[in-house]
Amino acid sequence: MPVGLILEGGGNRGAYTAGVLDVLAQHDILLPITYGVSAGACNAMSYLSKQPKRNYRVYTEYAADKRYSSMRLLRKTGSLFGFDFIFGTLADELLPLDYEEFYRTSMRLRVCATDIVNGTPVFFEKEALRDDLKPLIASASLPVVANIVRYGNYELLDGGVTAPIPIEYAIRDGIEKNIVVLTRDRSYIKKDKPEFPLFYLKRRYKAYPKLVEALVKRPAVYNRERELCYQEQEKGNALVVQPSRAIHIKRQCKDPAILAEIYQMGVQDANDRLKEINRFIAMNA
Asked: pTM, whole model, 2 decimals?
């Protein structure tokens, strides 16, 4: 039975995940299947393409670029994020992603987005990204500050709304042993309220009541999925890697020095757990 890799999102807290993934890659720990949500899915791209330090450079060299994220973009395009830049100029020219290796490797990636009509998570294999990366863009498209992504028969937004830490979906798929990378420390508990006022969400997404319902339930879902990770760890079915100290930044922190520090925490924490990680994999190979 393969060991899976579960990657939480969290905006630029994903610099922590980038550090963890680089340690795994540098030690040839290339797990056969990854479940990625939002920033976690974006980080997974460089992990599958076997390009250590690429994500580090994304965070430290381009997160502050106005083409990457800005209020100007939000006013101009309806999205806080410049996806055309992130998955165009950046991925093709400035820090080219090795798409050939990404698609050639046998390592699987399951990208999670939210079906906003049904208010449920939906997972896409990496082959669905070939044409225009829409499922990946959808996975990172936060409600209110990003546009709805239409792909096939789906209308999609951020996977973190309905499956912020999709360990239960990995288990349903038969992946019973998992390494989970979180971007919040052990003491964190999400407050039981939506990020935006309910009256605003109902007005903004009046055509999508199931999405509004999911947004209201999101804190409870997040806390439940985190607790499941710890329960599975207690049973020996999971290994949780998470920040050894609290990360007190906003989701879209752009300070290169802070993001580099968060990345280095990921590197240190992963190195500190390296023997444990290798033992967990060996026991479940």
From this structure: 0.96
